[in-house]
Structure formats: C-alpha cells, structure tokens
Amino acid sequence: MQNQFSRTALLFGETAMEKLYGSRVAVFGVGGVGGYAVEALARSGIGTLDLIDNDTVSLTNLNRQIIALHSTIGQYKVDVAAARLLDINPSIQVNAHRCFFLPETADQFDFSKYDYVVDAIDTVKGKIEIIMRAKAAGVPVISSMGAGNKLDPSALRVTDIYQTKVCPLARVMRYEMRKRGVQSLKVVYSEELPVQTNPVITAECLAEEGVERRNIPGSNAFVPSAAGLLIAGVVIRELAAY
Predict the structure, then answer these.
(1) How far apart, in whole angstroms, are the C-alpha atoms of residue 138 and residue 1?
(2) Where are the beta strands (DSSP E) in the chain?
(3) CA separation for the pair 60, 56 (Å, rounded)
(4) How far apart are CA 158 and CA 50, in angstroms?
(5) Would you say 85 and 42 are in contact if contact means Cβ atoms under 8 Å apart?
(6) Total-model pTM
(7) Which of 87, 118, 158, 205 has CB atoms 3.0–4.6 Å from 27's, for a disulfide?
C-alpha cells in the first residue's frame, strides 16, 4: 500500500525505512542550514527529531530560511519548525528545545539517546561542545562550516575537517579539533573564497540591528539550503546503511 514515503522506499527498501523511522536525530541550529536539514530529514522518514535553537524568526531570515515567513516573524524557530514537520508527517515525534547550546547548557542533553547529531550552529564554543559530547557518546556527528558570504553551491563539499581548505571557520575548527585529539570529523564546507560584502549596506545593517560587531555576513537562498540538504543526505544514507 502506498504512503508518503513510498518513493523513498523504492530507493532504500522497507527495512531501511523502518530503521529511519526508529532513528532519533538531534539538529543543533534551525536556521539557514539547519532548517533545510530538518525538513529533508522529516520528509525522508526520520521518526524522532530534536530541534535545539533559542532564536526567533526575523525579517532578515526571509531571504534564506525555509521556516521564515511574514506570518512566522517573532515566533521561536523550533516551534515553527515543529509545527511544519508535524504537518509534513503527523506521526513524527518532535522535541523542540528553546535553548542556545553552549558549554553552560550542554548538561541538558543526553547525547547517548541520539542516533546522529547535526551541528548547524555558528558559535565556535558551541560547535566544539557538540562535537566533543557526540564523540564521547559514540554518536556520529556532522558539522556545518561557514555558509555566509558564499555564492556558489557547487563549491560545497562533504569531507573530513583535516581535508578542508579556504574556509576560515574550518581553519579554526581544524586547530581546535587537533588540540583536543579528535582524529576525524565529517563536515560540510565550501571551497569558494568568501565574497566581499558591500560596505555601505553592511554599515546600514549593523546600524539597524544595533549589534556590537565589526561585520555581518551576507547570505542567500541557495548556499545555506544546499549545505543543509547535503547534511541531510549524509545522515539518511548512513542511518539507512546505504
């Protein structure tokens, strides 16, 4: 009998689909990259998703985030995503955590309960903590490197952190992982050189947002989304053992 996952089952088979339904995946960060990863995981038949993010949808998210609509501005991203996922698959279990993941909040999460961990957050401290907790629990993890200031989705790659180049965030993470004795880490990163943003528009954005920072990254609808879909593809194929 046909169901909403019949076309996926044609590729993976029923046994793999049962495994996906029995899997629990944690996605840290439900923004430009994480939002598309979450969507693809749900549409692929993952049975339980944990969403971790304390941010709310803003006007500037509309250009790239799948959960960002004028009707969702001001709402918590995890709540918007949870409602969307349940509309896609009413049988899915979604655990929405309104939380910024940092070393100070890490004890709220038991990584041993997850079958796969997706790191799609921006802060280096948070990324390191996610990776180290996943490694300690023996849970596979994939980490997103910088997707800002990029224009070419075809330059995205899935590789080990020690095989990365060009990406400034990947350079920092290589150093931090080597310092902690991490021998391997699967990442999605771009080999594209960062694009120089418009200084006038940058200054206007910083003034309007009223934030204390020297720069603000540019982004678009096609690079973060492509990174998120690449991540989801890796997770699904590995969990389905395909």
Answers:
(1) 37
(2) 24-28, 48-52, 93-97, 116-119, 141-144, 156-160, 186-190
(3) 11
(4) 23
(5) yes
(6) 0.94
(7) 118
